[in-house]
Design brief:
The chain is mainly α. It is 57% helix and 10% strand. The longest helix is centred in the C-terminal third of the chain and has 17 residues.
């Protein structure tokens, strides 16, 4: 079959090293409560404004199992799904990628952008000061 666009070589979309938007929604549901059957994951997605067919949710959950994001366990006549990856590991990977690709590795530039673009109140700023002070004195992760 001749190429659709002569002279242009199309490449398959690269698989992302980070979860997609829908995968993140599913992970957030399961980080909050797990294990859950497909039906409950679908109900929570619909409640969050993401109505999907039951078969679509099954497909996504199985893809996420293959990618290593979830584990699946058979219980009676249903599969139960739970996260295989921790929230802080996923968040750290995404933030690290943004830090590297968008801010050239400059954490201060990234934090400055957050301070200038986010709607932070006094309590938020106090909490940030507290976390910075703790990191400075102990080196401990917040």
């Amino acid at each position: 079959m001749p190429p659709v666009f002569p002279g242009i070589r199309l490449m398959a979309r690269n698989s992302s090293e980070h979860p997609t938007e829908l995968e993140l929604e599913i992970l957030k549901i399961l980080w909050g409560e797990s294990p859950l059957p497909v039906r409950d994951v679908r109900d929570r997605l619909e409640h969050a404004g993401r109505p999907l067919a039951h078969s679509s949710v099954i497909t996504m959950l199985n893809i996420m199992v293959r990618k290593g994001y979830l584990r699946r366990k058979k219980e009676r006549n249903a599969f139960l799904f739970s996260p295989r990856v921790a929230r802080n590991r996923v968040a750290g990977g995404i933030v690290g990628d943004i830090l590297s690709r968008l801010f050239d590795g400059s954490a201060s530039a990234m934090v400055l952008n957050l301070l200038e673009s986010a709607d932070l109140d006094g309590d938020d700023l106090d909490e940030l000061r507290r976390l910075i002070a703790r990191k400075r004195t102990t080196g401990e992760q917040p």
